[in-house]
TrEMBL record:
NCBIfam families: glut_syn_euk. InterPro entries: Glutathione_synthase, Glutathione_synthase_a-hlx, Glutathione_synthase_C_euk, Glutathione_synthase_N_euk, GSH-S_sub-bd_sf, GSH_synth_subst-bd, PreATP-grasp_dom_sf. Its EC number is 6.3.2.3. It comes from Gymnorhina tibicen (Australian magpie). This is Glutathione synthetase. Homodimer. Binds 1 Mg(2+) ion per subunit. Pathway: Sulfur metabolism; glutathione biosynthesis; glutathione from L-cysteine and L-glutamate: step 2/2. The lineage of its organism: Eukaryota, Metazoa, Chordata, Craniata, Vertebrata. The keyword Secreted does not apply. Residues 204-302 form the Glutathione synthase substrate-binding domain.
Amino acid sequence: MAAPWRDVVRDAAAVREAAAVAVDAALLAGVLMRTGEQPQASDVVNYAPFTLLPSAVPRALFEQAYAVQQDFNLLVDAISQNKEFLEQTLASTIKVDDFTAQLFRIYMQVLEEGLAQTVFLGINRSDYMFDCGLDGTAALKQIEINTIAASFGGLTSRTADVHGLVLKVLGKTEEASHLLPNNPAKGLALGIAKAWELYGSQRAVVMFLVEEIQRNIFDQRCVENELWNRNIRVIRKRFRDVFEQGSLDASRRLYMDGQEVAVVYYREGYVPQNYDRQNWEARLLLERSRAVKCPDIATQLAGTKKVQQELSRPGTLEKLLPGRPEAIARMRATFAGLYSLDEGEEGDRIAATAIADPDRFVLKPQREGGGNNLYGEELRQVLEKIKDSPERTSYILMDKIKPQPALNYLLRAHSPLQVSECISELGIFGVYVRQGQELVLNQAAGHLLRTKAIEHADGGVAAGVAVLDTPYLV
Ligand code: ADP
Ligand code: MG
């Protein structure tokens, strides 16, 4: 891939000057996070980690990622309405993975009672890396789709200005003018506002379901403030608040201390640690309600790694989206090799292949949030240990994507300024709203580029590994 900053990246004096400008610009622009020491208050904040330089992204792949986003929105929405598919696909997983099993139990319980919810809102982010082929050409390969709590749509809208300024300081005024504007938070808020409107109660509020510890609050505030600007009231509550204050009326309208809730936007609830017994009860209450959940539990299940793996099986997309061959071709072109580790011959064969050649693969459990996948020698050891046990079924295998690294500086508070070999991951935000059977909104809402040093196989921004970036199209 092109390395557009080759001439400045090794110029120590220029880099130091630009980094000082970059950090102050980030603080001024609101690229902010609470600190690890004071994660519960905004008295002391710092900049969210970001790259000094925007990273090169091939224009054609960037456009390809945008062009396929509406297809993925349709697909996720279709999966969420297909009980038979979810049941069959997750049958083996829920036998061994307690977290997925508990989500699935709530899903079945809600279906049995009959859905009260009639308006559906999906906010997802489809993530990709640029796989470098033997001939040096890069291909867009999907890492995963996040169907719950996809973050950084707020902070990422502020990095282009910061990087534009950095490029100017480095004498690259022309290049600075080519950075694209990007505001996912606005698009996400548009979807939430549409769902709120269709819910149809002026008095009702939007509830952000937030974490106990809210370090990334500024990212959420970007979406929140867009809603206030539309005169939509927003409240922020945790699962335990829902347990204590939440109730349903006879038509299953959701109330928090007497205040009706139109939309529940989850920024929490995607890992087992988010739940104790009370929180599971709160989740069930929310799912049973008429309120628009973003996502509803079916859509959360649609985002599991197991579902992703099944989608890559020949014929699956055709069954889920009949009559849409073009959309299917666009999506399939982004799939990397994905393999089931279910018990049986197919699983035995791929497990043996991965044990023999672990560097070709990534081993993934049904978890979100970064830091859970296994690579290389660790992959080999774990797979060796579980290859003959049902536990194997809780994982999937995926071909490892191998992007071409580029030099950059990762700016982090209290860290030395040093050059790193880096790789990037591009995310496209998708938003859709469905009323009954009618899709009333289906859009790509913006992008997120995250970059990390190649030493780290795994991990996102919140996990402290990747940092925010801006694409520079080449
Ligand atoms: P999570 O739900 O934890 O975010 P991901 O599937 O996104 O799980 O994986 C986490 C990180 O691991 C990604 O951001 C990426 O850096 C790395 N990763 C995941 N899958 C692959 C792959 N197939 N090839 C190379 N790196 C991968
Ligand atoms: Mg991820």
